[in-house]
Design brief:
By secondary structure, this protein is mainly alpha-helical. It contains 19 helices and six strands. The protein has helices spanning 4-36, 44-58, 68-91, 108-119, 129-132, 135-165, 174-199, 227-236, 257-282, 288-311, 318-321, 339-351, 366-378, 387-407, 420-446, 457-475, 492-521, 538-562, 564-571, and strands at residues 209-213, 219-223, 325-326, 329-330, 412-413, 416-417. A two-stranded antiparallel ribbon has the order 1-2. A two-stranded antiparallel sheet has the order 3-4. A two-stranded antiparallel ribbon has the order 5-6. Strand 3 and strand 4 form a beta hairpin. Helix 1 (4-36) packs parallel to helix 9, helix 1 (4-36) packs parallel to helix 12 (339-351) and helix 13 (366-378) crosses helix 18 (538-562). The protein is globular and about 80 Å long. The protein starts with a helix and ends with a helix.
């Protein structure tokens, strides 16, 4: 990567991918908005009969619109059933179809962590996929969860948005919402993505492995599987758990620079289209641009910090995390991809709550680790499928409320007053995140379930960062990891506590979003007045961006000071 022309070309490649996704985002977002509001869409003749068949199978009346308690009950009970299904499947995987004789059942605590992980759209893996999950477990359990967890995120966003446009106290039908989101959005896009990935060199087969005779004589077993279809929904649905343990650094999951760029586009597609979906659903096109602008500002800062951190990585820390560097290739970076290509993939993955890795996060510079952590702290720039936009809307409501109080005007948004009920639920949504991170972090260290090394301040800070990253990733339902080189996270403690963190971190904020929607849905919209904040403006975009950055820094700066910032100080 010392060739300047090659480096310029790689920056051009990532700029083209970014431009193509942003060009497609308004159309994709408009389509999503029509799905959210139950308006006819392209392909009605194909999607409609499939959906009606599912409604009959489930015994659902698609015309019935639920109030908030019924919606929450349907949402939680269906997800509980999914968790139980995956748990039992992993416990009995050696006795079910598509079993492998050399793969035993998972221990109960690992099965609990895995079922919680995949049902919450986290896909944080404490296991090696090739040797610990059968093909039946993958296809009948984990991949099903990839579709349903992503569909649940989109369904909650749809219900959240309806609060701004309805006045009868209903927010939709959960079973209709998740069915439409899976059938009309996730399934078609994932099939198209899988077909393109096959053309780009990813294998797609039910064969679990192939054996080859190496040049030196011994026989080597090469794991295989339905990689393209898995990778497509994994990236498109903000899932991130690779079909191979090496995730997107594995040449079967990500064989070339071209596949890497396409996979970046897959991860970006739905999260970056969500502001336009919101604008389409509330029928105010201008509402998309302040949210997209906020996302882009924070996102580009993160990409720049990651690249700068890798280029200027600290040689003082190389004994701690193998941070040595050679011609822009830090240890842990996949050399098939340039630094811009790798950095964009990793930033999109973490900031989009996908969690897939094509770089070893444990080997990133402290600046790079700090940039990755910040994306999981915000969960909204752009955040995961569905929920990311929900978090951003929640931050906007708090920002509008605070702005209204500062100028002495009644806070309102889209004609709906923002009162104590909405702000109470919004505050609980934001505050549960640091509680879920710092509580387990402190308990882990004080309980002796992980120990900080005493070989130096830098080494201690790096191990602290790895534990912080573990719980941050689980609380944010992200799924990326620094690896178990520094902390063994396959223990009973990390499995059980991690499962609780993921479940609470997923479902409590989503319930809060539904409650906010409920309190808006009982209001009659008011016409804009002279004191109404103009949210379709550049000023509001800058205000929201600064508000988001400052609020996140106030909540999490002490943790960064003890982790990545201390590493920087230790090295310099």
């Amino acid at each position: 990567m010392s060739n300047p022309l090659a480096l310029v070309g790689s920056y051009l490649d990532v700029a083209i991918v970014f431009g193509l996704v942003l060009a497609a985002a308004p159309s994709i977002g408009n389509f999503m908005g029509r799905v959210f509001t139950n308006r006819p869409t392209f392909g009605e003749g194909v999607f409609g009969p499939v959906e009606r068949g599912i409604y009959r199978l489930l015994g659902v009346n698609p015309r019935h619109s639920m109030r908030v308690r019924e919606y929450i009950s349907a949402f939680l009970l269906s997800n509980a059933a999914l968790i139980i299904w995956i748990f039992l499947l992993l416990q009995l995987q050696n006795k079910l179809p598509l079993a492998a004789p050399n793969i035993p059942p998972m221990s109960w605590d690992l099965a609990l962590h895995t079922s919680a992980s995949f049902s919450t759209n986290t896909d944080f893996t404490h296991f090696v996929t090739e040797s610990q999950v059968t093909e039946g477990g993958l296809l009948l359990g984990l991949q099903v969860a990839m579709f349903l967890s992503a569909g649940a995120g989109l369904a909650i966003l749809a219900a959240f948005i309806r609060g701004f446009v309805r006045k009868d106290g209903t927010i939709g039908n959960y079973f209709v919402d998740i069915t439409r989101c899976v059938v009309r959005i996730l399934a078609p896009l994932s099939v198209l993505g899988a077909l393109i990935l096959v053309l780009l060199g990813l294998p797609q087969t039910f064969a679990t492995s192939l054996q080859f005779h190496t040049l030196l004589g011994p026989v080597q077993t090469i794991p295989l599987g339905p990689v393209a279809s898995w990778q497509s929904i994994m990236l498109l649905g903000s899932n991130g758990g690779g079909i191979f343990g090496a995730n997107s650094t594995h040449p079967f999951e990500n064989p070339s620079a071209l596949s890497n760029l396409f996979e970046i586009g897959l991860m970006m597609l739905i999260p970056f289209s969500s502001p336009f979906a919101f604008a389409s659903a509330v029928r105010r096109k201008g509402e998309a641009f302040p949210y997209l602008g906020t996302i882009l500002i924070v996102f580009f800062i993160a990409v720049a910090l990651l690249i700068i951190g890798q280029v200027a990585s600290n040689p003082e820390l190389s004994p701690i995390a193998a941070l040595s560097q050679n011609s822009f290739y830090s240890a842990g970076q996949e050399t098939r991809f340039t630094l811009p290509e790798g950095a964009l993939f990793q930033t999109v993955s973490v900031y989009g709550n996908v969690g897939a890795n094509n770089m070893a996060i444990g080997a990133l510079s402290p600046i790079g680790q700090m940039a990755m952590l910040f994306g999981m702290f915000t969960q909204s720039t752009p955040g995961g499928v569905g929920t990311g936009m929900g978090y951003l809307l929640t931050n906007a409501l708090i920002a509008i409320f605070v702005g209204g109080l500062m100028v002495g005007r009644t806070p309102e948004y889209l004609g709906k007053k923002i009162g104590k009920q909405q702000i109470g639920w919004a505050a609980s949504l934001l505050l549960i995140h640091p509680v879920l991170i710092f509580g387990p972090l402190v308990a882990t260290l004080l309980g002796g379930f992980a120990a900080l090394p005493t070989t130096g301040v830098g080494a201690s800070a790096h191990t602290f960062t790895s534990i912080l990253y573990e719980f941050t990733s689980e609380a944010a339902n992200n799924g990326s990891a620094m690896g178990s080189v520094y902390v063994n996270d396959t223990t009973l403690w990390f499995n059980v506590v991690g499962a609780v963190v993921m479940l609470v971190g997923r479902f409590m904020p989503m319930v809060a979003m539904l409650m906010i929607s409920h309190h808006f849905s009982v209001q009659t919209p008011l016409p804009p007045g002279p004191g109404t904040l103009k949210t379709q403006s550049f000023t509001f975009m800058i205000y929201l961006t600064l508000f988001l950055i400052i609020l996140t820094a106030l909540l999490f700066l002490p943790a960064l000071a003890l982790g990545p910032l201390t590493q920087i100080g230790a090295g310099g």
